[in-house]
Design brief:
The chain has seven helices and five strands. It is α/β, with parallel strands linked by helices. It has one domain: Rossmann fold, CATH 3.40.50.1380. A five-stranded parallel beta sheet has the order 3-2-1-4-5, sandwiched between helices. The longest helix is centred in the last third of the chain and has 13 residues. The structure holds 1,3-dihydroxyacetonephosphate.
């Protein structure tokens, strides 16, 4: 599956801990990330990640483009709900596209735990049907 990993600055430590904890699951998938998040994860875990631009420079939109092509299978986006983001419209647009295409989206650690375990258990096989149709 193709998985996107994104975290706002105050959530990056959480994302790093999450990817360390679930490296054994994540390493079986094709990983994408916004620029700084991807760098932090790579440094901490050694996971292979395709890095897009940093979020404020268009990274969320690049990931959104893959969602719009129905190519992204899950998005882990640890948002910071307490800090204003200069690129808030991009953040909203990505979340909206996940809803348009029914892409599983975790915006906090609690949901992420459940989603990543579903990934391990094979709950994402329905995505293969979508890929076959495309
Ligand atoms: O801003 C972001 C998501 O909206 C994340 O971007 P970075 O991973 O480059 O910090």
């Amino acid at each position: 599956m193709k998985i996107a990993l994104i975290a706002h600055d105050k959530k990056k430590d959480d994302m790093v801990q999450f990817t360390i904890a679930y490296k054994h699951i994540l390493e079986k998938h094709v990983l994408f990330a916004t620029g700084t998040t991807g760098l932090r994860i790579q440094e901490a875990t050694g996971l292979k990640i395709h890095r897009f631009q940093s979020g404020p420079l268009g990274g969320d939109q690049e990931i959104g483009a893959l969602v719009a092509k129905n190519e992204m299978d899950a998005v882990f986006f640890f948002r910071d709900p307490l800090t204003a983001q200069p690129h808030e419209p991009d953040v909203s647009a990505l979340i909206r596209l996940c809803d348009v295409y029914a892409i599983p989206l975790a915006t906090n650690m609690g949901t992420a735990e459940i989603l990543v375990k579903g990934l391990e258990r094979g709950d994402f096989t329905w995505r293969n049907i979508i890929h076959e149709k495309n």
